[in-house]
Amino acid sequence: MGEKYSFKNSGKAKLILRVIGFVCTGLGLIFIVVGLIDFFGAMGGFGMPTNFWAFFVGAPLLFVGGSCLSFGYLHAFANYSAGETAPVAKDVTNYMLDGTREEFTKTVAGVTEAVKGKEPIDEGLVCPNCGTKNEPGALFCDNCGKPLGKKCPACGEVNDADATYCRKCGKRL
Ligand SMILES: [Zn+2]
Ligand SMILES: [Zn+2]
Questions:
Q1: Ligand lying nearest the CA atom of residue 130
Q2: Topology of 124-173 in CATH?
Q3: pTM of structure
């Protein structure tokens, strides 16, 4: 396998592949034509097809030849197909995105919400007065002593320092 792949990159191997490809494709086509002529000739009343086997020899030959040719011209094909299919691929991607955009937006919104919901716990409370980041759940700033949040007397939820009502239970703070 590895040998084959290294061969693929050498120009000489490609030349050989192209020659083999042309020979096999040519022979395959000849065999197929012979087989088909024999087959249709037999249908035309010349008895049983005797050379129809040629078709079954020609088909794999054509396949092998085609494979050799595609390997032999791999680089050219790759460039060609890349240039040709890139816009199509982009369209398909856009089309698929259109279909999944709503779902995608929902997912992103869900993730964002989850991250946001975690933020006060992960980030801790930032003092509105001096900007110091305090430990999660802290009620007063470590640095300046200003209140960081209002602890709800009813449910214990720590609300923003400027909150008027508890975000959890709605009680006036
Ligand atoms: Zn502070
Ligand atoms: Zn509350």
A1: 1
A2: SH3 type barrels. (2.30.30)
A3: 0.35
